[in-house]
Specification:
Keywords: Flavoprotein, FMN, Oxidoreductase. The chain has a single domain, classed as Rossmann fold. Helix content is 42%, strand content 19%. The chain has seven helices and seven strands, in the order E-H-E-H-H-E-E-H-E-H-E-E-H-H. Strands 1, 2, 3, 4, 5, 6 and 7 form a seven-stranded mixed sheet that branches. Helix 1 packs across helix 6. The longest helix has 19 residues, at 18-36.
C-alpha cells in the first residue's frame, strides 16, 4: 500500500484555535478519503505560530534557521499540502504570507493544495478566491476546486452540517489528485552547504 505524506500548514495564533481545528478536520477527512482509495497517509503539521520569530530572523539575516528549514522541508517534501489561515484585514494573515515568502519560487510547482480559512463572519469567505487561490496559482500549485471557509456559526452544525459536507468534498478532491500522482521523494536540502551566519561573521574577523 502506498503511503502518502500530507503537510498541514496552520497559521492560527491562539491555542486552541479554530484554524487548527479546521486544519485537523480537513487532515482527518483527507486521510479517510485516501484510505477509501486504497492508500495510507501520514500527517505532518507545521504550526506557524511556533516559527514567528524564526521567520522574522530569516527575513533579517537571509538564512532560515534549522527549525524553519525543517518546516519548509516538511511542506516541500509532502505529497499534498493543506493550507489554513485565519482572515486578517480581508486577506490571509501576515504570518501565513511570511511563511510562503521564504519558500523557493518553484517549491510548490505542481503540488496538490487544499485551501481553507477561518473568520468570525461569513462576510470574509471570498478571501479564498480573491487572495489565497491567486497566491497559490502564482506559485504554480494545483489547488483543488473546493476551498473550505469556516465562520463562527459554521461550527454549530457538527460533521453532519454544511461545513462537514464541504470538508468531505474538498478532502475527496484532494485525494483524487494525490492518488493520480507518483509519491513524492524528499527534496535535497538547498541549505545543506550554506555556512551559518556566525561562521560568516567569524570569517570577516
Amino acid at each position: 500500500m502506498t503511503t502518502r505524506t500530507l503537510a498541514v500548514v496552520s497559521a492560527g495564533l491562539s491555542t486552541p484555535s479554530s484554524t487548527r481545528l479546521l486544519a485537523d478536520r480537513l487532515a482527518a477527512a483527507t486521510v479517510a478519503a485516501l484510505r477509501e482509495r486504497g492508500e495510507d497517509a501520514t500527517v505532518e503539521v507545521v504550526e506557524l505560530r511556533e516559527h514567528a520569530r524564526d521567520l522574522a530572523d530569516a527575513f533579517v539575516t537571509g538564512f532560515p534557521n534549522a527549525a524553519l528549514r525543517a518546516a519548509v522541508e516538511t511542506v516541500t517534501g509532502a505529497d499534498a499540502v493543506l493550507a489554513v489561515t485565519p482572515v486578517f484585514t480581508a486577506s490571509y494573515s501576515g504570518l501565513f504570507k511570511s511563511f510562503v515568502d521564504v519558500l523557493e519560487e518553484d517549491a510548490l510547482t505542481g503540488k496538490p493544495v487544499l485551501l481553507a480559512a477561518t473568520a468570525g463572519t461569513a462576510r470574509h469567505s471570498l478571501v479564498l478566491e480573491h487572495a489565497m487561490r491567486p497566491l497559490f496559482s502564482f506559485l504554480r500549485a494545483v489547488t483543488v476546486p473546493t476551498a473550505v471557509f469556516a465562520a463562527s456559526e459554521d461550527w454549530a452544525g457538527g460533521d453532519g452540517g454544511e461545513l462537514g459536507r464541504r470538508i468531505t468534498r474538498a478532502a475527496g478532491e484532494l485525494a483524487d489528485v494525490v492518488t493520480g500522482r507518483p509519491a513524492s521523494a524528499r527534496p535535497a536540502d538547498p541549505f545543506a552547504d550554506v555556512p551559518s551566519f556566525e561562521d560568516l561573521l567569524r570569517g570577516q574577523a
